[in-house]
Every structure is written in structure tokens, then in C-alpha cells.
Design brief:
The chain has 176 residues and is α/β, with parallel strands linked by helices. The chain has one domain: Leucine Aminopeptidase, subunit E, domain 1. Helices cover 36% and strands 19% of the residues. The chain is built from 5 helices and 6 strands; from the N terminus they run ββααββαβαβα. The chain has helices spanning 39-48, 50-57, 95-112, 132-144, 162-175; strands at residues 10-15, 25-30, 67-71, 79-84, 117-120, 154-159. The chain binds ligand AR6. The site of ligand AR6 has 26 residues, from β2, α1 and β6.
């Protein structure tokens, strides 16, 4: 059977805790140290257990706009993809391109690891202060436009709160 074209990838929005999702890979909104933090990063490290931090120490950090992969340890997800989003500084410092880079690299890593399903939090939309409609539009457009390999067929945007959920729904309407 033919692989689905990128635009046929299933994109869905769910509200809830990403650490509970039984998908092949969840994405973490990390920082360049990859050694943990607050927000979704803290929640993922708590749920995955101490082996996640041990694995992250071996990665030696990650530049902003990119991502690295580890096992998921005690999580339902098999893998964690640690993406480092940009801090919002007003939009003139390449933030959009770096945010898009997180999504592209995460999709590539998921594809390489043989994942069919991946869930993203709203990277940079918490502590890093990105405007939510702008970030969710970049997330949706980057994932929808991501080219082959196309084994990653189901992408979940997992969010906390009504504002983020609505922003994803609007961004999805714009590409449909
Ligand atoms: N499940 C899904 N979404 C969540 C969860 C969860 N369990 N917890 C928070 N969110 P943030 P950032 C949402 O601040 O802006 C850390 O210290 C949250 O409501 O986690 O990329 C890192 O170590 C928001 O919409 O990440 C970095 O230093 C989104 O996830 C820094 O924060 C992202 O918020 C990264 O900041």
C-alpha cells in the first residue's frame, strides 16, 4: 500500500498531560542543558524516573532549534524527543525559524526511530514566553509540511489550557 502523503498525516489536538499519552514518542520542551527544568520538562522527568536524567547527561546538551532522542523509561511512550525551543525575544532574533527547526528535527528523529505516532507540547509557549497563536501556527504548518520519510502518520498536539487548545484548532483550520 502507498505511504500517505504528508498532508494525509493525521493531526489532532488533545487537552491534557502529555506524560500520560501512550504514543511512540513524546516531545519534551527542554533547554540547552537537557538536564531538566520546570513546566512540561519537569513533568516528563518525574514521570519517566531517574534513568531519564542519566540518559540526558550522556547527550551533552542540545542547541536551540534542534532535538535529541532518549528512551522513555517509565513513561507509556517508548521515546522522549528533547527539543529546545527559543526564548521569545520579540521575533527579530530568528525565533520562528528555530521553533520550526524543533518540529522538523523531532519529526526526523521520530521517523528514524520507526515511530508511527508522536505527541508535541506547545514548545516555547510557557516559560519561554512565545505568543501562542504564532507558535501553534508554526507547529501545525511545519508538521503538516514535513516531507518523507512518512512513517510518522499520527501527530498529537497535546496542550494545557483552553487558550492553547483553541489556537491549535484555529491553526489546523487554516491548513484545511
Ligand atoms: N503536558 C502537556 N503540556 C504541558 C504540561 C504537561 N504535563 N506541562 C506544561 N505544559 P513550558 P517552554 C504546557 O514552560 O515554554 C523548562 O524549565 C505549558 O502550559 O513547559 O518551552 C525547560 O527546562 C505550555 O503551553 O516550556 C526550559 O528551561 C507548554 O507546555 C523551559 O521550561 C510549554 O511550556 C522551556 O520553556
Amino acid at each position: 500500500m502507498a505511504e500517505p502523503a504528508p498532508h494525509e498525516r493525521i493531526l489532532r489536538v488533545v487537552e491534557g498531560d502529555i506524560t500520560r499519552l501512550a504514543v511512540d514518542a513524546i516531545v519534551n520542551a527542554a533547554n540547552e542543558s537537557l538536564l531538566g527544568g520546570g513546566g512540561v520538562d519537569g513533568a516528563i522527568h518525574r514521570a519517566a524516573g531517574p534513568r531519564l536524567l542519566e540518559a540526558c547527561r550522556r547527550l551533552g546538551g542540545c542547541p536551540t532549534g534542534s532535538a535529541k532522542i532518549t528512551d522513555g523509561f517509565d513513561l507509556p511512550a517508548r521515546f522522549v524527543i528533547h527539543a529546545v525551543g527559543p526564548v521569545w525575544r520579540g521575533g527579530g532574533e530568528g525565533e520562528d525559524e528555530r521553533l520550526a527547526g524543533c518540529y522538523r528535527r523531532a519529526m526526523a528523529l521520530a521517523a528514524e526511530a520507526g515511530c508511527a505516532s508522536i505527541a508535541f507540547p506547545a514548545i516555547s509557549c510557557g516559560i519561554f514566553g512565545y505568543p501562542i497563536p504564532r507558535a501553534t501556527r508554526i507547529a501545525v504548518q511545519t508538521v503538516a509540511g514535513f516531507p518523507a520519510p512518512e512513517n510518522v502518520t499520527e501527530v498529537t498536539f497535546c496542550c494545557f489550557g483552553e487558550e492553547t487548545t483553541q489556537a491549535y484548532r484555529e491553526a489546523l483550520r487554516e491548513i484545511r
